[in-house]
Amino acid sequence: MAGRDLRALFSSNDRGMATAEAFTNRQVQWELIAAALAEHLRHTADRGFDVEDLEAPRNNVIVFHGVGGIGKTTLSRKLETALAGAEHRPAQWGEPTWSGERILPVRIDLARSANTDFEQFVLMIRAALAGLGRPLPAFDVALRRYWEQQHPGESLEEYLRRGGLVGRFGNAMPQQMQGALADVAQALLLPGSVGTAVGAVAGSLTRALRERRQTVRALSGCARLADLLEAEPDLEALSFYPHLLAWELAQLPADKRVTPVILLDTFEDVGDRTHRDLERLIQRVVWLMPNAFFIVTGRSRLQWAEPALQGQLDYTGPAAWPGLAASAVVPTARTAATGAAWSGGRQVLVGDFSSEDCDDYLARRLARDGQPLINAEIRQVITGRSHGLPLYLDLSVMRFLEIRRTGREPVPADFDHDFGALIARTLSDLTPEERHVLRSVALLDAFDLALATRAAGMLHEASAMRLIERPFVRENAVGLWPYHLHGLIRSTVRNADDQADDRWSPRDWHQAAERALAALGEQWSTGTGRDRMLLISCLRQGLILARDFRLGLGWLAEAAWSYVGDSVWEPIAPPSRRDSSGRELETAADALVEMLSALARRQHEHRERTADRLATVASTRLLPADLHEMAAYYLAKAQRDLGRTEDSRLGMQRVIAGGGPLASAARRGLAHLSRLVGDFPAAIEAAQTLGWDGRHHRVLAEVWWVQGEMARAAAAYQAGRIEAEEHSIAGEAATAQSMRSLALAFIDPGRADDELQLAEQLLSGVNIRASRINAQIAALVRDAGEPADWEDRAAHLRTEISIAGLTSAETTLELAVCFHHAVRGADDELAAVITRLRDLTQSGNYAYYVDLAHFMAGLTLAVPSRARWLDGEQLTRSRWRALVTARRAYLRGTR
Q1: Strands, E assignment, 351-486
Q2: Residue 747's pLDDT band (boundaries 50, 70, 90)?
Q3: 222 within 8 A of 138, measured Cβ to Cβ
Q4: Fewer CB within 10 Å: N-end or C-end of the chain?
């Protein structure tokens, strides 16, 4: 706890409510500080360390940067108290390795609201060092001379008191400075009151230093003191005086040695990329005080290690600041915790709170009788919405109190809420152009510079380049588009009540969505080759934009055809408007989202659900004719999978009559329907007219394997796979290979094993549930007659098929089970499965599977077969019976 939370305290009349500023553990950051400071102390204690060396690289600064509201200021304050003494340090932070060293923390708030100018900055450091109880004459003489020149007639003591420094650091500094002047005047044998002769003291001291008089040998070791005293005492000269402070600190005896740790908070308010005047002065102080350690907290990384800033700052480049370079690596928490030396990355992104930390914060912030006032259910909602941002937690606490003031007890639904204050914090230090880009990319899940610039409608990338350096823009180096906004920032910018002066109207948002959708389409259409990742990524983002802003389909229609054509079926669509809100489909974009979602989800849902969703899409007539045909075709496929043969036949015929892109596929569908009812000659005849588009090889193979011609079927499946690979249709290649594995599993278990490995390899890149199940059935057929766990595997697969609602796969599995029992000669088990198979095929679809089960076992059919076998029933029977006898011989040979 950091103390009483006065805002919460004054937000309620409930005197029984305990309010406290909760500090949530930042142990990793402490470990990094501890390791960096320990390394700094080792460096400054080394005999070779020279405080006056102005050319050695500097590693005396560490930066913690992150989005506004992430808790940087809280961290800075806690570090100040923790460095002041063990009694203020959280127990979980652990004991630092520098125990015994004297650390002097000095925290300086650089926020605009704090009105900290450079004079105050320097005076704060000196005032903090007054605690040493001794003058620092080299610095004090120079500072006193500066003050007399720049503030004639103004008392330094009064200035310190008015600025609050006396209350914070005491009033010892003016007396020490006065004592330093008196000591120097006495050493120089100057007459009169030194209080009115600062200029004379400085002048005499300079001459004495030049002449190397013995009377000032205590100061003669400071090689640059005379030069600083001769320089015009202006702000520029003041920025070099900290060198004198560093020198004075180095002269302290060992038992008085102290290391200042200067915490610079809200560094983003120091300036911007154009105006770096104050930053230049502060950077100079950091460089000139190599024996002090600086902890910077702000929204952005320090750019001091970038060579391009040469001329704007005095000391730039990775050689000057090795720890601030982009290539420097931040040590692991393990390295930091062990206190191991490191001089790597000193730019640390302050991460979001974990869910546990969020809950802990909310539980401790408000309490009554030691129990959290905010209940667990509300805490869970706030935590989920916060994305780990502490500012959101703080705003939610104030909302909790605000609702209680109305006399109503807050409920979880009250906190499904965006806070406009987050927008103000996010936009506060952005240029107008950066704000415009920020709002534009808030429409996108991810983006690159080109996409951000195009979505913003700008001609140059400069503003987007500046924006991606902000901590609320996260980077994924391996992503197609490497950048994305912090989740909460994006949600808030898009959804909260924006009261900024440059807020967007609904028309502004609509126009930005049009630009973003067009930009995605341009990236997809100009992509090289058949880039599946680019297609999917563009579709995912484009569908959301078109749906949410009621935009025309444009390039999305062509992209949808490309998506379907590869038969890979990656998850692609967001929840449809109908799914997410209960409203009916209203636009073409709504319908397209629902259709593509149904097609992808059919690999994970029961076919009944797929059929219902596609029927709804088709009934709206919102889609253009070609996409409506797509819905009709896949609806007919789902109906076939469900055993609704007549509905499927009518649907396929309508697609064929339309003559669109799926007419060939629909003719294949009719061939499949002929095969389902056992009209094999009709299926073969249809296959002759299908060509590549109709997957003619696979249609032929699916007829031949049920005739028992496994080798012929396997060859046709292989031809189909090769043809699919030539056309880069990954889904069709995987489907053909899984069925080739099934055909070979009946006749050659050893070879089938190799083919199944290839099938698994091809299936790993697609999302086709039916083909994956066929590969599993193939593995069962390969192992038929032997493994003890065979029936358990079959039972597990039976459950999976039932969940999927795949009737065709269900009958194929039961046929495989019949093969297993026939090989084993388990007549009773075989009879039970035949009964189950007969029940499954009562509709007439796959009824000939019952015939095949009888053929395998050499049983006589009770009812004559109604199937039209290509070579007649007797030859087909002998082939299936031969498969069983061959498997028995194979098993005998392997034992």
Answers
A1: 366-368, 371-372, 473-475, 483-485
A2: very high
A3: yes
A4: C
